[in-house]
Amino acid sequence: KVNATDKDYVRYFVIDKFENIWVATYDKGLFKLDHKTGKYSSFLNYKIRTISHLFLSKAGKLWVSTNTGLYTIDIENNKIRLFSPAKNQDPLSNNVLIVYQDSRSNYWILNEEGVNCYNFETGFSKKYTAKNLQGLISFKAGSVIEDKENNIWIGTVEGLNKIDGRTGKIKHYFYEAHNERSLPNSIILTFGLFLD
Known about the structure:
single chain; 4-stranded antiparallel beta sheet
């Protein structure tokens, strides 16, 4: 049973192709409500407690973002694996916030050190940080979405970043007090980006 108290409230849920409901809680781990039996099963609770996000990939793999790493669950057999990039790919921080898959099968992984982008088909890997002017406006990213032109938009605590889908160049948008065409607020975090 998942009790909705102040310490174990539901943070996120997804429904897989078998119509099972996967529920991420703040302090009690991950649960699966089996569509056929109506019974709950718990997952990862012995390893992690705080889950920040769930993402179901196009291939049907469940990605579980936690404060102790990124896990994948094969929904066909419930096998759990701790995600680890290949040796030739950029390393990933343990505190993972969000996973997002774009239309070109790039996985955008928002974590406490910035944003990692991986393409497992091509081997591509890139880490986006806020260390220089060509990087993100802030390494504290909390939302991501792709638009119709394949641009990637990343919301952070200091503004919005647009990564051009053709050139890879990054443009920054943020609040400016005396500019009525600027953003109304620079803090753009979880659930902050939607396509119009």
